[in-house]
Structure formats: structure tokens, C-alpha cells
């Protein structure tokens, strides 16, 4: 036989020849003919014309020939559905063949023929094969269910194949179990809600048993399935881990990684104090290290996974730094990945070693790699503070080499180091300036210009340096142009006398000669700032910048947790959740790590975080960060912001109408006071004024008007934790709201649970239902050192902008410090909004009560309150709920009360108290009925405390 | 779950194309893959590629591309493992993996694929298990001859060996089952170690790693049982020590699942019934302390005169193997500063060769006997533009871009860990035919042996 036998070029009549051979009597000849047909098919020739002839060969005892014919059928049945029907009878007959190989072959092939007419005939044979005595047939049938489900899901459900498939999970043959698990997992993915893979301790046990017996590939299916299970407690998690651990030493890396995934996920549930936790950590390292001796392709995939694991649990590999040292002959993609992991593992203990390596890498030949190595040195400086000095000197050494790209890269990272450690390494600026001429890449030029502008006062010839860049202004890239503009403005603000000409030149270049809108806009902003108020300009342009931290290049924690659930899958290679790249809706069920069950320690997983926080109804109020960001920060929190947020014109009118319903005629004879602050149109002057004077002015005002209010002020709830430390990089905030003599304040307690000093605190509220806003900046006078706690009372006013929140009393807050910006939301008790002049005239009360339609009346029951009418009345009055009249009807005390909210909404109440009965009836009438629920809650709170 | 599998020739022609899930796209996918692959920029990882909801994972084997595609979030490890297993399997069944053997055996390959993968789920990759299902016989180009000793090599390791083992013995189908019996009675056992070493410029080793494997290729009839005896002093883990001599210690060992370890603890004997075909019996690794000294030491001295741009490098390479052993095919690769021209050389023996190429110095040494040393003196001119200003005082520090030196070599009959196979015994032979040929070979070769200068 010669090589080219099957590949002769198409001659005329070749099909004809094949046809003749196919119809030959001799088996051998037929077989050879079918082989030729298949060879032609592979190289892309159309041999579909031979369909009937090939199908004729199907009825044979020769297994080899049969297989060949089936192969052909799979390929062409789709294009010739009518002809394919001819084969059905043989298929059905073959499904009953005494030879299990033929039975399996028939059922497998039928599943691959995606023709509706054939699938109808498939059901009966499939049902038999699922119960076949031979495991080879059963395992093939199990997969066939998945195939059929893909073609016709309804049919599979109607025929009850899913139940049969579920039974196969308990099959005696591990191969069958593995295929059944794989098929069920896939079917379950397309019906996320269905409970197909009902994992319970019993079925898990079966899977774990099968795990020990089945082939490596089956083990992967089973492990992946186990990873979707959530054990009920830490004990169960531990016992599963114990049985999965032996897989870590398997030769197949896919088995190892699937086992790692299960362990990483279940470890989340184990307490860190447990001995077993430590053992498990130790066991995870060797298999991961072993993966690094595989082929580069596997290494790369392994490194991408290790990158995730290291971010989640750095302790696993903290002693294995050496294995990530780059080998000379590693492919570049492996090198870069290793570099990244080295930095993640860098710590004070090993930084010397790492730096020595990085310096070595920086002298290699591969330009890309060298650049990354230089960058890595900068990242080390930012990550490990103690090493910063050493890193800077290493970078200076590298700059001395004068190799162009090394110098440029070094300057870019030195800029970052300046951002992290301001005013510390300025001595190097001189060296940097020497290399000004050699910079030809935009990023490096921009970095250098930034440095010159930032430290203009220390560089004698800063103006000359910047001027030299200005000459070719229009040839520079946008990045450099913007940076140059800012730097020159900075320079001007620092040395106004000598540089006036320069700044005018750059402003005119940017605004008049450029057609880049960004550049023009920035130019105009500076121009106007400088011309209207140079002092303000100084504050804006030379404002202190937030420090950068190494966390900027970490994967965001929630994404990381999700990705940990996808270890050993494509998601872990792309570092993207599957929803970002998997077609359609399949497999995009979000996975999350299980919460830790042992509750005796302060937990670490974010899911359980609110456990210690306020009340049960709280969690669903907390919005996702993404939503908040949009709403809250129309403003940049960069420089500490003070005063109420700017009243933007986008106040939602719908919300105003709803809430303002109570503002009708009642407002008419209102005495002047804060009550008439109509939030539909906040005082236009508000943004310009600083908050503090308003706040104090308000309390003065109230001192005069609130004759009735008692001095003690209204009820104050104890402080609760609003922002747990673990969600805010170590900053814990707890607080409560108070109202005293007419002024509202937010009493905060800030605790620094991080290891670094916190400074530069600022606070801002999102728009909320009642326009609550800080009346003064958040003043934390001294930096907050670790473990220190500070108590602050932040005065609030209600002149902020308004947006209806759900629930009504939800308040979203952003707190900034030198580390980051954090968001949380809290519910404030409504009674802090009850104003001191909420006592209504009797006549007015009657009229209003009648005037408000009955459907606005809401009834509530206050249980378990043993006070009498007098005590109730006094108590409520101290929180500005005023009793207007009291009646006794049939032995019951009826109290008629009124209160007014800061935005002028009146609420009228009827409180029915039956002596001896601890349950009170409360009827509330209000034109804005949505507040009733919260007023009732305020009643409850006040009366029960 | 694999959607498609295909094999492309080195020129991108599809040799095999199999669709498991009735995905659209068809054959164009193969073409698309090749276009994407050839259009890749240098540093992008080609391991996993992504195009319109389809992920490509491929390996390159003997000049062929084995590619799997999937549209789901599956484990890339399992795909990579599968592809390399398939490469082994196809080698087992077709004799060797090459464009020729694949296109001669299209029907066989399809049959194999059908058994290995069903609806994209991997069923099995064991040669032994598949034997029960495969009907088609391999088409072999040349009849195999035991006496065809024209070229010499180890299967698996791309290397050379002085002890003669018939190379083509290892590249014939394991399962040409119905051919005559006398030829199949062979078993090959290789102990192959890969050495990766990093030596600092002061000569102290920074990192030493040895990855070893016991690889078995068996042509024995199935059901044969064998025992492999390893060095008795062999110990695993940091603490354990055995025997009186210097122990042979490794950090980690993993075994193939078919290996019976009953006698391992007591006598270091592995017992197994090898399936026909290739099998990695054991894998081990060892880092940091080697029982024996590193095979090579390099003593460089560099003189660099920045003014004249003259670079003089004197390299002395010492082989610290035992005197009876030798290293072969040694090649030293030393990257040089950019723009180096005009090499002049003085080498210590005539069989050596040195040349400039791709910005590096290549120094080839056919062999070095243990305990000896060889040297070379190289002089080059570096255009002064690189040194720029020239006012730098540094005549001592080498110019940028020089080094590190990397060595590649082979150490036949030597294992760096010291691990040896004491014996290979067949305990049970089903058909009781003539004594089989047993070939046991030891070999170490370099993976990355880097010396900083």
C-alpha cells in the first residue's frame, strides 16, 4: 500500500468507480472503498452522492465495516435527512444486537445524527440501552441522553430520561457514574432552576466512592460536580476535603486542578484555627509547584491559576518564591506570568532575593521582558514599604546603564513611587533630569513632565525644562500635551513671577491651536480658574493627591472569589467570569464561595459580613458599589469636600411630588423656620456657602422657637456598626443619629483596624429622601493611628438635594480617607426629622384629619408597652410628637397627636390606649402615606426605650 | 466538553477533522485557527485563543497541530492533557505521529476519536482499554526491522545515546497485533532526568531542580507483569533517610495509577502490569541539594574596554562528572551586546566550534570527559555607539546585554539524582514465549542550565 493511495486527485468518474467498489461482493473491497470515501470526506471532497451505496453496506456482521459506515453517516445524515431515514431500521436492529459493542455503537451514532425524524426512533432503543446489562452500553447511553437533550429537551423530559439518568449516578460501574454526572451537569446548566443534580450528603458519598475507582477523566467530571456542592457545616466540608486530598498527587494535571478547586472552595468554610486547615495549606503547595515542571503550555495555564490562588491565599506558596524565578528558556508568556506572581509573593522577608532577581532580569536581551522587570521593581517598592529605598537605588543603577528603554521604563515607575511616597526621594530628580533628552516614548515623557511639574519648586531650571518640551507641542501625543499643560500651570502657581509668559503660551497653544477637545477643555478650565481666582486655582491644581497603593493591580475581591470557584477552567486563564465569554446564557450561573459556618470568630468572607451589623432588614438596602458610584460621585472626592453636596438640577420631580403631598394649605400659616425649606428648589446659595455656619445658624434659630421641646432631646439609639472593617480596608465605622435642640447630627465612631495610619477623612451623602446632608466637613483632627478610635459628631442639615430612596429612610454614605473611598448605607430613624414646632392647632387638626382621605389612614399595633397615657404623652413629646388633645372613650384613652417632618409634611395620629392592655392601637393620617410606616417605627422605638 | 478536534499539518492543511457536538462553523474553523495562529504577535500566549465564542487550545507535536475547540468554560488542563494523550495514543496506534502516518490511517484515527471522545466527553485514553474496541488496523509504511540501526535515539527524549537501542523499535505501532509475534517481545525502560539550574555570577547555585521520569514503552503481550527495582537508598521527602550511604533523596514522587506499591516501602520495588504502549510509571522531582556536584562549572572572565569597544571573553568550562562519565552535545549560548562584530577565537581543542549568530555566541563541544576542562578565548568588537558618551569609568563592569550563559547538554548513563534501576524482571508472561528484550537506559539532559556572568 502506498501513502498516496487514498489521496489521488479527483478524476472524472472517481465517484463512479467508488460506487462500483461499494457495491462489490467482496467484503475486503467494500471496506477499502468505504475507507477511500472517508479519506475523501476528510480532505473536504463532496462524496454525499454515494450516500445510498454506503448505507447499503451497513447491514454487515463485520464490525470494522459497520463502524466505517456509521462514521460516514454521522457526517452526511444532516445534509441528506431523507436518505438517513433509510438507515433507521438498521440502527434499531443494531440496538438489540447480542454484541454490546454494536449496541453501543448504534446508540452512540444515532445520538450524533441530528435529524429530528431519527430522534423519534431513538427513544425506545435508548430506554433499553440505559438499562442494558453491559456497562459499556450504559455509559454510552448516558451520554446519548445529553445529546438528545441538546436536540430536543422537551422530548427528554417527557420520556422521563432524566430520572433514569439520575438513577445511573448510583450505578455500580464508575465509568457509568462519571458519564451520568457529566451529562446531568450539562443538562442542569441549561436549566439553572431545576434541581437535577440534587446533591445531598448521600449522593456526595456515592460520588466520593466512585471517585476512587473511575478513570482520570471521570474523576474530573466528579470533582467538578463536587465543587458545586455546598456542605452544610465545616465538619462535612472537612470530611470531603480529606477524601479529595489524595487526588492532588495524580499525574493528570486536570485532576489536580479540579481537586484544588474543590479544596479552595471548601477551605472557605474551615476555621483557620483548625489544625486541619494548616495541614491542607501545606498539602496544596507541592502539586502546584509540580505543575511548573510541565510543558510551557501547561505551565502557563497553571501560572494563571496560581496567580488567583496567591491573591486569595498567599500563605500557600509564600515559601516557594524560588520556583517562580524565571528560567532563561521559558517562553515570554510564562516569564511575564512568573514575574507577576513574584511580585504578589514579595514580602519583607524575601524582598532582597526578589530584587536581586529582578535586577538580573533587567539586563536580559528581550525588550518586553526587561520592561516588565523594571516595572516590577517599581511595584515592589509600592508593595513593600521597607524596600522602597533599595528599589529606588536599583532603579537609579538601571538608569545609569543608559539603555534607552530601561531608562524610560524606570522613569515611569519612579513617578509611581513618588505618588506613593511623596517628598521622600526627591534627591533622585537631578539624575532623572539628565536623561530628559533620551526619552522618546509618550508615557515616559509624560511621567517626566509630571515629575518636573510636581516638584517645580525644587528644580531650578524647571521652566527651561518644560519650555524645551513646549517647542514641539503639536507633535506630542495627547497624553504628553495634557501633562505638559498641567505641569506648566503647576509651575506658574508655584513660581508666578518668572513663568507668566510660559503659562500664557501653553494656554494659547492648548485652547487656540489644538483641535483636541480634552486638551482645549482643560486649557479653558485652567485659564478661567487662573483669571478669576488664583487662590482657588492653587487649591484645585495643587491639591494633595490620594496615595496609590499596590492594591490597584489586585483583582477585585468579589471577582476574585468568583474566579476561585472557576479554578482550572478557561475563566481562570482569562481572569474573567464565564459570563464574559461563554456563549448565550449557558453556564453563567454566578458562583460564590460558601460562607464560613463557625460563627465564633470574626468572619472573613464578605457574605457573612452584615451578621454583626445593624438589623435583619438591613442587608437588602446596601446597594452594589457600581450603582452607588454613579449616584454618589458626580463629584470627585479627591480634595476633601466640605459642605452639602452641590444641588444638581436633576432632582427627580416625581419624588418631590410624592413627598411634597403634605405641603398643601397646611403650609400657609407656618411660622418661619427650617420647616419651609422646600426641597423642590433648594436654596441656590447653598453650594457656595460652607456648611458649618448654616448648621450653627440653624441651632440658634431653633433655640428661639422650640419653647416646647425639652432640653434632653429625642431618643438616641445605641451605635451600631455601619461599615465593618473588612469591607473598608481596616476602617470600621459605627454610628447613630441624634436630634438635640433642633439640630440633627450623626454621631460617628471611627476605628482604625488596619496597620497603617489613616488621614484625610471626608464624608459625603448621596441624595436622599429628606435632603440630609453634612452641615460641616468631617473633622478628624489628628491622623488615626492603628487601633485608635475617634468619636465625632457630624452636624447635619436638610438642605441637601432630594431623591426618593427605597426604603424611604435609606441613607447612602461615602467616606474617604487616604486609602480609598468606601460606601455604605444605613437607615436613619425618622424621629430625628420631627421638628420642634410640630404642634398643630386643635381646630386645624380636626379640619385636617377630615380633609385627608380615609385611604391615607394607616393602622398599626404597638405591642408590649406598659406605659400609661400620661407617660406615653411625655415620652413622645420629648421626641417632638405633640399631644393636642386627650379623650376618654369607653374606658380607653384616646390621644390625638401631631408631628411635622423637616420637609413640612404633617402627620396626624390617634393613639388608643386601653388601661391594662399592653397593645396600643395607632392610626396615622398623612398626605404622604408612605411615611406612615416609618413614623410607626419611630413610635415603637421611642416608646420601647 | 470538546466541540471539535482537528489535526493540521505544519502548513495548515486539515488532516483530520471531527465535530462532536454538531456545532456550526464546520471546517472553516480549522482555517480560522491557522490564520489566527500565524497572525499572532510574539508575546501573546497562543495556549488558549478565543474567537467568537469559540476557544482554541492546541499543542504542537512532531510538526502537527493538534487542536481542540470548545465553547464552554471547561478545564484547559484537561484539554491540554487530552491532546498530549491523543498524541501518544496516535503514536501507539499508527506507529509514529507524522503527516504521513495520519493520512494513511484516517479511518483508524476516526475510530480512535470515536472511542476516546463521546459528545466531547473524554471516555478513556488508555491504550489497553481501547484495544477492546478498535477494529481497524494500522497501515505501516515500511515493515519494521529490528536490525535497522541506522539512527540512534531514545523515544520520547530528543537526544542521542551511545548505547545502541534500535530507534525504530520505538516508532512502530504497539498494536500491529496481528503481525508476527517474535518481534513484539520488547520492553524499554528509560530513566530520564531534566536538570534546570541557575548559577549566580559568583559561582554559587541559586536554584537547582531535577525533574525525573521513569518511562516505559512495552510491546509485551498484555497481562505481563513486571517488577522494577529502584536503588534501595531511595527516599522521599526531606526527613527520611535510608541505608548507610548517602541517600538518594527526592522531594516528591507520583506514580501512575496502575503501579502497585506494596513492595515500595520495604524494598523500593514497583510492580505493574504495563499496558501496551507508552506509560509514565513514576515522576519525581528534587530541588536544591543534589547528592553529586553539578555537572558543569563555568569560569568566565570578561575584559571590556569601553574606549576601544573591545570585548574579550575567556571561558573555562569544567565538567565535574565522575571521570568515567562524559557529557555529549554540549552547546553554550552566550548573548552578546547588540551590534557585536568580528569574532576571533582560540579554542582548546580542534573538535570544538564557535560562531556568532542571532546576537549571541554559540560554542559547540561534541563531548567532555568527566573531570576535564575545556576553554575558549573570544574577542569581539562592540561598536562604540552603544557605550555612548564614553566618560563612564566602567572598564570592569561588562556591557549590557552580555549573558547569562546557558548550556545545553546530555549526560548519557547518568542521573543527577543518583536514582538507578536495579533490575527489571518479568514475573509473569502469559504466552510463555522466548525471553523478551529488555532495555533499561538512564539519561540526564539540560532543561535550563543558566550561569550568570
From TrEMBL, chain A:
GO CC, any one term: clathrin adaptor complex
UniProt GO molecular function: clathrin binding; protein kinase binding
One BP annotation, GO: vesicle-mediated transport
Chief localisation class: membrane
Annotated Polar residues bias: 597-606
Domain Clathrin adaptor alpha/beta/gamma-adaptin appendage Ig-like subdomain: 715-825
InterPro entries linked: AP_beta (IPR026739), AP_complex_bsu_1_2_4 (IPR016342), ARM-like (IPR011989), ARM-type_fold (IPR016024), Armadillo (IPR000225), B-adaptin_app_sub_C (IPR015151), Clathrin/coatomer_adapt-like_N (IPR002553), Clathrin_a/b/g-adaptin_app_Ig (IPR008152)
Pfam families per record: Adaptin_N, Alpha_adaptinC2, B2-adapt-app_C
Recorded topology in the membrane: Peripheral membrane protein
Top-level lineage group: Eukaryota
Gene3D superfamilies hit by this protein: 2.60.40.1150, Leucine-rich Repeat Variant, TATA-Binding Protein
Region (Disordered) location: 586-625
Cellular localization per UniProt: Endomembrane system
Ranges where the Beta-adaptin appendage C-terminal subdomain domain occurs: 834-944
Keywords from the UniProt entry: Acetylation, Membrane, Protein transport, Transport
Similarity-based family: Belongs to the adaptor complexes large subunit family.
Annotated protein name in UniProt: AP complex subunit beta
Gene source species: Chinchilla lanigera (Long-tailed chinchilla)
Native organism taxonomy: Eukaryota, Metazoa, Chordata, Craniata, Vertebrata
UniProtKB/TrEMBL annotation, chain B:
GO CC aspect terms: AP-4 adaptor complex; clathrin adaptor complex; cytosol; early endosome; trans-Golgi network
Quaternary state and interactors: Adaptor protein complex 4 (AP-4) is a heterotetramer composed of two large adaptins (epsilon-type subunit AP4E1 and beta-type subunit AP4B1), a medium adaptin (mu-type subunit AP4M1) and a small adaptin (sigma-type AP4S1). Interacts with tyrosine-based sorting signals on the cytoplasmic tail of cargo proteins such as APP, ATG9A, LAMP2 and NAGPA. Interacts with the C-terminal domain of GRID2. Interacts with GRIA1 and GRIA2; the interaction is indirect via CACNG3.
GO biological process, one term: Golgi to lysosome transport
Predominant subcellular localization, coarse grouping: other
Domain MHD: start-end pairs: 184-452
GO molecular function: protein domain specific binding
Keywords, ordered alphabetically: Endosome, Golgi apparatus, Membrane, Protein transport, Transport
Main function: Component of the adaptor protein complex 4 (AP-4). Adaptor protein complexes are vesicle coat components involved both in vesicle formation and cargo selection. They control the vesicular transport of proteins in different trafficking pathways. AP-4 forms a non clathrin-associated coat on vesicles departing the trans-Golgi network (TGN) and may be involved in the targeting of proteins from the trans-Golgi network (TGN) to the endosomal-lysosomal system.
Presence of keyword Isomerase: no
Entry-linked InterPro entries: Adaptor_comp_med_subunit, AP2_Mu_C_sf, AP_mu_sigma_su, Clathrin_mu, Clathrin_mu_CS, Longin-like_dom_sf, MHD
Protein name in UniProt: AP-4 complex subunit mu-1
The keyword Isomerase belongs to this UniProt entry's keyword annotation: no
Gene3D superfamilies hit by this protein: 3.30.450.60, Mu homology domain, subdomain B (2.60.40.1170)
